[in-house]
Amino acid sequence: MQTDSLDRRILAVLQRRGRISNADLSEEVNLSxxxxxxxxxxxxxxxxxxxxxxxxxxxxxxxxxxxxxxITLQGQTDDILxxxxxxxxxxxxxxxxxxMAGTADFILKVVAExxxxxxxxxxxxxxxxxxxxxxxxxxxxxxxFRSTALPV
Length: 152
What we know:
By secondary structure, the chain is of the alpha+beta class. The chain has five helices and four strands; from the N terminus they run H-H-H-E-H-E-E-H-E. Helix 2 packs across helix 3. The chain is elongated. GO terms for molecular function: sequence-specific DNA binding. Keywords: DNA-binding, Transcription, Transcription regulation.
């Protein structure tokens, strides 16, 4: 599906304010409510809009510590990669897992209550991941900014 500048404006607004009413969205992008609704439905059906979510404040839910974990595997065969990827999906505190090109095979973004909680997560989950040869963890001291909005 091809998108035009109007579709991209709709996507930009929805990324910032996912709960905006169709009436307010149509006004913001200068389109009739029915045409705006049809475009949003088309963007959803085409997979441009994957989901609508609530973004939580990690501090308020008791998970203020962010830790980035670099993982090097024992090898990169399909079996080792598949086993690791299946297992890491099951760890609730892992928010993101990226297969990398570079010095580490994977980088994980992990949230925890504090250093003691991360030690528990490490001991009970991360250290038991299959195929891991080496791990290095880095604690974020402060989040300078965070965004989920893609530049459309």
